[in-house]
Amino acid sequence: MNINNNQVFDSLKETMDSYFPLSKETWEELKKICKIRNIKKNEYAFDFYDKVNEISYVYKGLFRTFSLNEKGEEYTKNFFWETRLYGPMVALLNNKPLTSIVQALENSIVIEIKHDKYRELLLKYDDLKMYHILYLEKHWILQKDESAYSLVLEDAKERYKRFQEEYKHIISRLPQYHIASYLGISPTHLSRIRKELKEK
Question: Name one Pfam family in it (predicted).
């Protein structure tokens, strides 16, 4: 996949600045711990039991994270697309192997950021720290709280309607069986729900 490295890094800078502007010094230090990676469709960015030291910014493409239950059935936990970050934060913070997989659903380009070095920069630069806090508040606290609420208190049809609204910009790129897995229902059940909604 042909890419312009400057465009890729400009995208990361623009995205980070939208949360909190980074100084030139902070940005130059951050770039030193980044590298661009191409990931092919269906390839695993991270696999079970890997020990990793990266978080990744999606410049182009689409990913999902999933785990397996005791029956070997897949449970899709989340989706990540352009301008979003993915990374096994629990494993990184606890220095443990992964318990879930990150899979590319399309040919993708990401920027990998060394997590240990990133943590060092957080302690050094207040602007990076503010970006980090604001990003976590929006994507790891507020959205996860809403997802947990939906899973417990809404029925399958309401969960799908919420999913349609929250993921409307990528839903056409997602296979139906991954959507069903994310909602905690079978593909057959999802097909029935979609048919019912179309008939209304």
Answer: cNMP_binding
